[in-house]
User: What shape does this take?
Amino acid sequence: MDTWNAGPRNDLADVTGLAVGHHQRTGDGWLTGTTVVLAPPEGAVGGVDVRGGGPGTRETDLLDPRNMVERVHAVTLTGGSAFGLASADGVMRHLYAEGRGFPMGGPGQVVPIVPGAVVFDLGRGGDFGTFPGADFGEAACAAALQAQAADEHPALAQGSVGAGTGTQTGGLRGGVGSASVVIGGAVTVAALVVVNAAGSAVDPATGEMWGARHLLEADVHGIPGWPDGTLPGRPHPEDLEASRRAAAEANAAGAMPRTLATTIGVVATDATLTKAQCARLAGSGHDGMARAVSPIHTMFDGDTLFGLSTAQSTAPDPATFHQMLHAVGEVVTRAIVRAMLGAESVTTPAGTWRSYRDAFPSAAR
Assistant: This one.
């Protein structure tokens, strides 16, 4: 780790060529959203690894290394359970209008390749029938295109935004988190994770976050609502007891079951990888989930990670690829902790989901 540092932004956009856009809706029964990870115009080499027992996915078979298409043009991460898969249609249409996609003949004859995955957040805003559609995907894609075209990428919004808007983890509010690392000053590895797990990100015996010990100093800077530069520690016993009481009351009174879940995301690098290596990168990213959430990959989760290579630098040798597989687990763990730190408490007709910082205020010391 002595040669590893967070990238200059400490988020997914540290991988050259990638951009992120969010769109969400809250209030009037809504609490959901969509996040789009946009590849460079020529696409990114893609792989996938699905571990949860209840996945909701799109175009994952296409990413099998035995199949033809090498590159994807965007990845859609969204709320809405299986209904939310429709948001990828809006991403496809928007990219088609931009001329981005798999070439099928003459000019403009392209098919954008847009795999995706969903989390379960139905009903958390109060109305079970509110979920992202193609309009959400189009809006998130437009935001990502705007970010990609900017001279300087704007800071990536984290916490209760995009696909993380209606998420929860172990009774606390989940969110979107991102982190990066640079290996040997040359290879960037990064992750963006939508945290929505049946398990908990918090040790029930202490109130500490399982993944907090993996944080770098850079991870506690620039998170809205969290004291800048403050690493999360062990909260006071009074906070822990109060949190247990509040969780018991919420589970008893909540209108929606709190066990329906799924954690999804994208891990990426600027190194040149094959489809098989991208799938391996995604697989090692799940190790990071297991360090940050317990239990993970349950039958109530559809945990899915996509692996992307923008191929902006050279192919790694075996030793460097080994380091990348180690690093990707670390950035996933850190991204999950950052999502939890950035989340905001919310109350809807379906119940209350408190943020980690509101449930354990003494952890910020």
Summary: The longest strand covers residues 19-27. The mean pLDDT is 94. The two ends are 25 Å apart (CA to CA).
